[in-house]
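Z., the sequence and structure:
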Amino acid sequence: MTAAPQGADELASRLQSLHPWLRDDLEATRSTSYTDSWLLEAPPREVWPLISDTSRLNRALRVPRATFEEVGGRRRGSSRYFRWALHWDEPPWDWVAEQVLVCRKSFRKGPVQAVAAILVLEPIEGERTRLTVWYGWIPKGLAGQFAVPRITAYLRNSYEALLPQVEEWIRDHREPSTWPLLRRPAGVSGARRRRVDDAARVLTRKGYDEEVVHDVLEHLVRGDPMDLDRIRPFAIADTLGLDRHETLAVALRLTGEGLLRVRWDVVCPHCRGARASLSRLDELQPEASCEACDVVFQTTSERLELTFRCHDRLRHVEPRVYCAAEAALKPHVRVQLDMRENVPVVLTLEPGRYLVRTADFAVQTPLRIDEDGASSGRADEGELHLAPGATLVLPDQGGRWLVEALWNDRLAVRPTDVLSMSEYREVMGDERLGTDMALEMGDQAVLFTDVVASTELYRKLGDMAAFHAVRAHFSVVFGLVQAEGGAVIKTIGDAVMAAFTTPEAAARAAAQLARADFGDLQVRVSLHSGRCIAVAMDTGVDYFGSVVNEAAKLQQAAGPGEVAISETMAAELGIDGAKTPYSLGGEQRVAVVWVPGGVDGRGDQI
């Protein structure tokens, strides 16, 4: 239901009492403002994701599409309202998560001098929220006196059409697929539909989960266009309740089928925005920059995210921008305020660790939130320990303050998640890293195979027959590695090095390899897991480090049909076997020798 209307003066006073730093915006625009309020049957924490997703919100409000360019770290926008062309400068937005969101524009061309768009969320007893919108304009000349009422009437009609739908959605069901801000097309037809059906059949025949294939393709053909210019497989998996690894594998296979395109996004560690999008890792440079944050940063693994775009042969999706810097794209930033005076802010933060800092990093204050914390603190007084709902004073530093949650974006696909997948290696072909690049890969499971007594084998069979036997053995090894989701990194003579994202997958592959029939060849296997790095080699993207070296040296402990495993990895997997010594750099170590399917074998249960 709509809340009781208030006059601009009364409303300005109330909003200023809630957020004193809004005073200048409210005073400057109260004479030509559009205001309204609604009571929503949900608490602010549930309303905030709707309101902060301002690109989708503005589209639903029928706000004309804007185009942006970045100049000196600031956004410049342009759009057209009715017959007026508008061009403006748009500084970073202000917000306090779950409380208030402010967008300001200073116009360089058009009938308006400036505008402040303010959305305020107030908790009301009974888990409800009062949503108040304030659009305050400063018109420019006679044209502005004529334009502002028309623009205001347009916005009022748009809000009055949209907000009842939001109210109904919140009150009745909150089903994600019927979210009023979504735009879902009917689907695709004709040649595009045939491509989708063909891809589904191909992936199902290759053994991919039929439900995952169907749900991912359905998302691609009927998803909101705003979700398809930068597709995050883990986000799709979590939303649809699918297995993450299988969803990523399906997305890679759909890339091979020509329905998606792969991109490596270089992500700023501070604003989390994609500062560059690369089609291949070959294009990656050791450093990148973010003008908006005025920083240069190293392009480590944590700064890279694999995303996908819809291929035009599936759907033509244009990036559609309705606003410059929406809070929904920066969920880790809980407060962002440009201060010119000391301002108290009541924090709405969950227990955890945060960083309070200035935009230029001149002040960086660790913040811990828990029930034992103080009721107030000041951002420049050293490490802070505050209670939920505490008041934080942001002093005048002549710029922006931010309060950031210290969290890892678990929806991001990093190099450690994908470079050891056979699907990625097949799709990207001979991709290489730059010669100066090395990427931290985190924990990987590394597997080596080796042909036992190969010199005697070559002498016995002759070079040509031995060559064909080794080639046939490669085919079996590659197939078994791929069947467990691993990737062959390289071959070294008649040996194979492979990597897997989990120890369990590596152990299953090792068990199959140890039991495989290679004809005249006898093969042994070794396994180790731990942190390694990806580097550029003649063979493409190679793995390097002590874990790789130890995995190779472990082979000396195994015989034909056996798997030598490092003690730590065997303990992690619960695998028993004979303890056998081996040498690593002159140091004597102990391996667990496993005979899958034998008296000590437990491979079938892994």
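Residues 432-605 form a domain with the Alpha-Beta Plaits fold (CATH 3.30.70.1230). The chain has four domains: 8-178, 190-310, 332-405, 432-605.

Let me know what you think.
H.
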